[in-house]
Amino acid sequence: MGRATQAHRDLYEDQTIGGENPGAGFDRHLANPQLVALWVAEAGGQVVGLTSLLVQGKEAEIEPLVVAAGHRAHGIGRRLLDQAMSEARARGIRFLSVRPVARNAAAIALFVEAGFRLLGQIDLFQDLDASSERRWVDGVTLHGHRLRY
């Protein structure tokens, strides 16, 4: 989970994301009762990718999908995604979701290419910390509203 946190820190240019102990988030993820499957990708004896499937009734979420920076764009993420999608189908899941961060254009492209083309929910934020290091980018219009991400 540390790699996922660092990727988000880099995307948003904010090294405070995830707090001082981002690995604690992975421990909470493993303890989640909705976690039904977890897959890892290895290269050279090291874990270079990870994904898991969280199930609640007939709905499931793929969370997280992480590939180490030096191993991206080699099909690892797609193979992990395909495995999770296959497991969801085998379990009779009706709706399968993913929640990439808005700035992760490569992840969004991967998910759209894999068939994720329906918007189900949008998280809107308001940055209340005027001293925040986070830089927001202009560029998305939704229902006529200009949004930053």
Write out key terms for the chains shown.
Aminopeptidase, 4-stranded mixed β-sheet, two-stranded antiparallel ribbon, 30% helix
What features would you describe in this structure?
It is a single chain. By secondary structure, the protein is α+β, with helices and mostly antiparallel strands. It has one domain (2-121): Gcn5-related N-acetyltransferase (GNAT) (Aminopeptidase), CATH 3.40.630.30. It contains four helices and six strands, in the order ααβββαβαββ. The protein has helices at 2-12, 23-31, 76-90, 105-113, and strands at residues 35-43, 46-56, 59-67, 95-98, 138-142, 145-148. The strands form two sheets. The protein has a four-stranded mixed β-sheet, sandwiched between helices. A two-stranded antiparallel ribbon has the order 5-6. A hairpin with a 2-residue loop joins β5 (138-142) and β6 (145-148). It is globular and about 45 Å long. The model has no long low-confidence stretch (mean pLDDT 90).
Give the topology.
Blueprint: H1 2-12, H2 23-31, E1 35-43, E2 46-56, E3 59-67, H3 76-90, E4 95-98, H4 105-113, E5 138-142, E6 145-148
Parallel strand pairs: 3-4
Antiparallel strand pairs: 1-2, 2-3, 5-6
